[in-house]
Specification:
This protein is mainly α and about 100 residues long. The chain has three helices and no strands. Keywords: Membrane, Transmembrane, Transmembrane helix.
Length: about 100
């Protein structure tokens, strides 16, 4: 690509970005993006974070207050069968030999 081709491609990309932002240029464009980002944060992101935090706190309080809940205190014993099955004949192949 010649130098004219690069500058044309850059100009096309720049105009595309400018048009996608509503045709605003310079400081007014930046200010509008800042306002939009701030509104999005306070209307959507922050409330969802607070809701998630409240749900976690409620779950922690509920788990703390239930003194009869089951708590695993040791690791489960692994199944001694070679097949790993709970039901069935154990070591059937070795006995038949």
């Amino acid at each position: 690509m010649s130098s004219g081709g690069w500058s044309r491609a850059f100009g096309n990309a720049r105009s595309f970005v400018g048009n996608s932002m509503g045709g605003l240029r310079g400081s007014s464009s930046l200010a509008s993006w800042v306002v939009a980002g701030t509104l999005a944060y306070y209307l959507w992101i922050r409330p969802s974070q607070q809701l998630r935090r409240e749900q976690q706190e409620k779950a922690a309080l509920a788990a703390e207050s239930d003194r009869y809940r089951y708590v695993e205190k040791r690791k489960p014993i692994p199944d001694p069968q070679e097949t790993g099955l709970v039901y069935g004949n154990k070591n059937r192949e070795k006995k038949s030999e």
